[in-house]
Design a protein that fits this description.
With 462 residues, the chain is α/β, with parallel strands linked by helices. The protein has 3 domains: 168 residues, Rossmann fold (3-Layer(aba) Sandwich); 60 residues; 208 residues, Glycogen Phosphorylase B (Rossmann fold), CATH 3.40.50.2000. The protein is built from 20 helices and 13 strands. A 7-stranded parallel β-sheet has the order 3-2-1-4-5-6-7. Strands 10-9-8-11-12-13 form a 6-stranded parallel β-sheet, with helices on both faces. β11, α16 and β12 form a beta-alpha-beta unit. α4 runs antiparallel to α7. The N and C termini lie close together (10 Å).
Amino acid sequence: MKAVLFLPDGVGIRNFVLSGFLEDLGRAADIGILARAPVAWGRRHVPAGVEWTQVAAATGGASLRLLRQTLLYAHMRWAGTVSMRHNLRRPIHGSWKARAFHGLARLGARAFAGPRRIAFLERRLLRRVCRQPDFHTYEKRFRAERPDVLLVSNQKSPAMVPAVLAARSLGIPTAVFVFSWDNLTSKGRIAVPFDRYLVWSDLMAEELRRYYPSVHADQIVVVGTPQFAPYADEELIEDRASFLRRLGADGERPLICYSTAAAATVPEEPEHVRALLEVVRDGSVPGAPQVVVRPAPTDTDASRWARLREDHPELIFAQPEWTAPDQGAWTEVLPTPDDVRFLANLTHHADVNVNIASTMTLDFALRDKPVVNVAFDVVDPPTFGLPLAEYYYTFDHYRPVLELGAVRVARTRQELAEHLTTYLANRSLEAENRRRLVALEVGVPPGEANGRIVAALQEAVA
């Protein structure tokens, strides 16, 4: 079997290059990779014999982009999840051209917000893509190389659409990995139809059928996610004293990890971290715990953290070891093996996690570590017009976290101190609820996901 992987961003590279997946797939297939990352990066990190080709972003003029954006908004209007409704109500910022572009797309979406009309608009969009030079480039490449299967790591990326259409035009099976638990309910639309859809869990399979009526049950395969594969690798784990010493922390004191969102998602988050540091500093959380902040990999703007770090020199700041030539763009930031190892150790050795409705809730639940969610506001008016507790914590993907009681929610600074005090005294609280959350959302034990994906690709070819 010859398998081609299309990895349009750093998340896909983390999931399929730095998880051990290529080694597992390499026992069953010859591998070619199409990625936005440079060839030199690929050669440093992939096994010998894997062919790495750097590809450019998708091309297309303004009319094609408008058609794509209209389709996305039409899907959001029809699907009508809480997150999508919030996003459609958010003001459009930027230049007058940006406001006009998105305003026109939102207006057009009103006429297409239904399954049949969405399907019509999608067919029109895909016919346009098939007339683009990118499509013919991939068609020529695949006709010459004749791969047996194409796997895409990101269901949203416009960059992969010409490649998928070219493969399907040649009868090459295509598969896509839905890469995060919130994507089907909050991240717009799957950019192109596939033959196989690889999802984390039965819950995600149900969401896929609900929001994509044209997808049949026999096209969906529950595989888990390679994202969490490092948590099954005990060889990555250092002893606590060594890791905390490397972190610049005291191995004898508790460690609280605050995992932040992207800067655009929670721009006021440094003030939430300040609130945490203040309740620790004033003794409201006993035991003199230490606080380490791990920003999102795309949050490379040190200036937004500068004042906080100046006011609280005791803060341990652990910037993810991703290369980031372009601030805030997941298509540009690239993970490193050192960061994979670091996160495996941080989730293993931290005593409690704090975040705002983050995927890191799952990372720490997989480690059976308690999580406190921050749900109080630090700016007035709230950034997105609603109190924090009525915004992220009402999103469809996050509601099961609260319904299962897998976290404690701090609606005030006092509650933040109380929840941290309680968890540091007894880290086993809500352990069963965390296990139920992992079973619901992750579906497959981390060590098994790679093998299931390989099997799904083999089945697609058979």
